[in-house]
């Protein structure tokens, strides 16, 4: 928080209004926030300095509805902004995202100082709604029931020169009993392959070397197009784009994960040996109650096929502990599946009751202390496995793409950080020559921890890349932001850490 004496510099850049966006939830929300930034900057706003903490002319909350305490978190943050808004005439607050889509009028009733409420289907309306609220001096609530335009047609503010999200679909056709996302994001709608590839090619032309294909259920891509092999074809087409070094995707669903996708991953050199495959539970009984259309045997069969085709693949997952009706035997089936699958890492969650989902009304809600005990046992097992799997990397020589902001202790340790092809985090000794985010170094792994690898010896080689050139150019110019959309494409965004995995993972 800035003092009153320096507030003017925090909220104004050359007399232009500033904005701050707070993002909660999945990668889809992170990418939507990039679009909200692009829309606001196209409308003339400038991003507030880091650490503004509400000290901006417009504060936008891009919300998530997956967690049970999402409502409390939002209203607590809105409450802290109320006195700031009272002290600054003209300040505006907007709430969007999944919680806004769900709660609608409730938000303004609980927080009457909110100016704009918009949903997941009409993020492109934010600047118009802000202006309308200003002119009419009353809250504007506009929730579209279906997608007005595919979000990738909107301008997007991307900050990184080396990595970008690329949406291939929105919405989800699954009916998992614990998940409210399909009700808020709608049915799956797929982009045309040509539009996706055109965006990727334009991003690469600006310096991008890594893209992540994004969808709520990414490998169901094609269901809206009538082509069951559309996703594997898209992966192979990405392999034909010159200059595109790394391709990732999140999050798939075991039901739709087919052999042609495994073959495309194995046979396309720039598709990385990494897979995020949500398990949720290892118990067939619980999977049935979750309305997940696969069983333990099917899941482990996919893992076996992937490892046969891609021996060094790092496989991660999502697991929910304490789903209604889960017995100790059900939990032990999850533990068994984790031991068999040997995940590189797992995002583990204690079941969170969400009003509006079938699971919230189910009998057999598990006591909190039982859920906590199971959760701790699962985390301990996965930590042990993650460490053992990481130790297998010691002695390997890996190409690491240098990242920006990945190593919190890099300054103190005189190291740099980046991602291996399988997405493992690697901290390495800073070489004598300059290394920029987006450049690639070759290192030998000397030590493994559960969540990262160390390369303590000298860097074997440094490969300067077009992505590094683009990062250097962006840093030297210090632009206000790069607006992206179709057909205008500019420097892409980094892959920020989200609070939880993509919505399709839940």
UniProtKB/TrEMBL annotation:
Its cofactor is [4Fe-4S] cluster. It is an enzyme of class 2 (transferase). Residues 391-459 form the TRAM domain. InterPro entries: Elp3/MiaA/NifB-like_rSAM, Methylthiotransferase, Methylthiotransferase_CS, Methylthiotransferase_N, Methylthiotransferase_N_sf, MiaB_methiolase, rSAM, rSAM_horseshoe. Its EC number is 2.8.4.3. Coiled coil: none annotated. Residues 158-389 form the Radical SAM core domain. Residues 17-135 form the MTTase N-terminal domain. CDD domains: Radical_SAM (cd01335). Gene3D superfamilies: Methylthiotransferase, N-terminal domain, tm_1862 like domain. It holds the Pfam family UPF0004. Catalyzes the methylthiolation of N6-(dimethylallyl)adenosine (i(6)A), leading to the formation of 2-methylthio-N6-(dimethylallyl)adenosine (ms(2)i(6)A) at position 37 in tRNAs that read codons beginning with uridine. This is tRNA-2-methylthio-N(6)-dimethylallyladenosine synthase. The lineage of its organism: Bacteria, Bacillati, Actinomycetota, Actinomycetes, Kitasatosporales.
